[in-house]
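Form 7-S
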Amino acid sequence: MSKRYRLGQTTSTRLAETVPALLKRGRREPPQDIWALRDVDLTVDQGEVLGLIGRNGAGKSTLLKILARITEPTIGVTRTRGRVGALLDVGTGFHGELTGLENVFVNGALLGLSRREIKRRLDDIVAFAGVERFLNTPLKRYSSGMQLRLAFAIAAEIEPEIVVVDEVLAVGDAEFQRRCLGRMSDMQKAGRTVIFVSHDSGTMARLCSRVVWFDSGRVVADGPTQEVLTAYLQSGQDMGERVVIERGSARVVSPVAIEVACASRPGERPTRDEPLMIDVTLEASEAAPAIDLSVYLTSENGTRILDEAWSDRNDEPLRFAAGASRRVRLCVPPVLAAGRYGLHLWIGTAYDTEFDDQVAMFTLEPRIDDSAEAVRRPRVLQPQVGWSSTLLDGATRA
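Output:
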């Protein structure tokens, strides 16, 4: 199965646009074909939880949209057995002027639930979303997290045989994510099939028995979760002095370069006993008044270890004029052990995600006086703190 999008192919309904387009038809450049998916052949068994990983623009979300019947493949077919429930975009089917309660009935109807079914499940939907106090408040007053909880609660109640979930859980808080993951686990135990996209390899490892890795619309690997995750994480571009990042699918603000070095010796490879300096260069294609940046470090197997957000330390968001670039520096204290680590960036606003992907791998060198045994020990944290040991039984050393 393959999916093609044609760039430059537009349809105009206004005479003022159509006439000039016809006059210039002979001079127009031919449209370009972009293959979002190419030669994809997958089978997912009933009751299986399948994870999809890959860089931004790899084709993961396109596959989910095809499975949800939002778009059709250009070549090939997809076959599903049972009702498909999709949670691909926060707020789809919601109306800001309607109350939360009214939106439950409207959104539930769009997902195929009858009014009687919605009434029967209303208490469960409201309890899961945690919006009891705000049920009669217009949805435009809800935070993005509240809207997400409500959307997931409704989608989970349609009891589909197949559930497809895009990277929407990333904007929820920890408690909401825990409840969502618990609900997805319950779906698996009930024999439903779950297919979801996530950049959180820890979530993948907990839920999935199988993972498919996409790159440029093609399947790179398909197999056991830990095996595919390890190969994917180790494929990240190794940090040299400075890594240039392709703009990819970010819409407004993109990372264009990143550098990791010793804070005290810029330009040199970092060692575990010195503060780590991470410089991120961001570029905006249009004005962006309120951008946040999060950087988190993962172990070689994808476990998240440390993270830091611009908003954690600064009251004002990052602001960009159209076409402007800004350079942000984050300093990490010397708490990591020697080893190889992944560097992941999240860029977005309180309501939307612009970029969310691992961008590079880097290596922390051991200290000169580290013993070979200390370097070999499997650990990720090695803070510079001293321990003490004391005999309490009155024994004396020989």
